[in-house]
Amino acid sequence: MRCLNCRLDGISQSTEICPRCGVHLPTLLRDVLTPETLLRGGDYRLDYALGRGGFGITYRAAHTSLEKLVAIKEFYPQEQAHREGKTGRLTVPTSQEESYQRGLQRFETEGRILAKLNHLNVVQVIDLFKERGTAYLVMELLSGNTLKDELDSQPGKNLPVERVKTVMTALVDALTVVHQQGIYHLDLKPDNVMVTPEGRIVLVDFGASRQNLGTKSGSRQSSRAFTETYAAPELIAGAKVGAESDLFELGMMLHEMLTGKLPPSALNRVFNDNWIPQNLDEPWQGMITAALQIKPENRPKSVQGWWEIGLRFLKEQRRREEERKHREAEERARREAEEEQRRQEAERQRQEAKVSEQQRQREQEERQRREAEARRARREAEESKKQRKQREKEEYANKLQRYKQYFLGVPGVFGVLGVLAVFLIFTAHLNPNDANAYYNRGNDHYSSGDNKAAIEDYNQAIRLNPNFATAYYNRGLARYNLGDNKAAIEDYQKAAELYQQQGNNDYYQDALKRIRELQR
Prior knowledge:
Distance between the termini: 94 Å
Number of strands: 11
Radius of gyration: 58 Å
Number of domains: 3
Strand order of the largest sheet: 1-2-3-4-8-7
Shape: rod-shaped
CATH architecture of the largest domain: Orthogonal Bundle
CATH superfamily of the largest domain: Transferase(Phosphotransferase) domain 1
């Protein structure tokens, strides 16, 4: 069973003291119909009481034929009737009979109206019947938690704005339909809002707990079935009530959902009304202020109209916020684009500077290399020239000596003429079969800047000595100076091949370096 004081479920039928709140359960449940009670000829079997209000008791029950769980609300105004212990029938004192019958009639009428609503956010009425001197509404049994449970589960006892909008929209939709039928809930509070596991928001506790009783004319006079901390002042005072009374309670709930706190009750404000909402943004500040006016005539007349004004404000607010975010996004994108452009320009300049510096370094290295090669070529040419002259001098001297000795051995005038002829021959021309002579003269031409003449002499030197590695190398230098890089590479490759065969590693590496530089 359930403790109707703290709503603890699963209590054993034999338990007398509630484990949670300590209430004496037999006293609390003395006028509640017992489990297994059958209603409407056995169609419904009661399980246990779910809750109690000033004008009724709600039970969990089962439809015996359909095997379907339902909730059954019993019309039971405690101030007007009491239950007979054995029969469970309600009896009404003569002095209360007229009021009781009006309330019972209103209970049935509103039950029929609610059964026709079939609204997602209003608990659905399935059946209505009379017995035991009263009437019973059979409704869908909702699983889940109350809105009060959801609020209590939050650290600040309040909800995010988007969740508040969802809950309020559902409640306003429900109340709009109900108000159109002339019904007023008059006990709006988080405990009377169910939230199913699927997220459906349902307004419950219609029926006896919010009946308008006590007048023959049918003007909406309040009963005592309300929660004072949420109730409108006219409801507390027993004055005429209407849609604006539900709006007051809805405004109290809205403040609680947004802030986690209830405003001062109407009873505390009625004689000293200087309270205004604090620390709330619009439209909430204005909406709550309008809904919680002490005088009902100062409140909006329509719950739907009141809420739509707020929604329009929120929509406009959201539109302005989206425009602001859009402008900020565009400005941010513009700044980022400009920053990216500046970054790219800086990178371009850096790369250009890097390329320029690299080009300058390459040009400087190339200039230094050429100067070094020119110096080396001049040194080699000078050294080769010295060696050639020395060798020619020695060869000349040796040949002259041999021929002199030969002709000096010839008697008479033939000997003298022979010596003279030898002298003339050795002083006349360059030896056409001497590769070194062509090589040395090519170096002289290269040093003087005559690359074409140098190439012709190097060609002759190579013709006479195909393995003349240095002649190939120097011809490559001359061809490079003339801009024929392809021919220069071929000469360097041949020179490198010959240097490697001859075991001259330094010159071999130098030739390879020249090849790599030209192939870049």
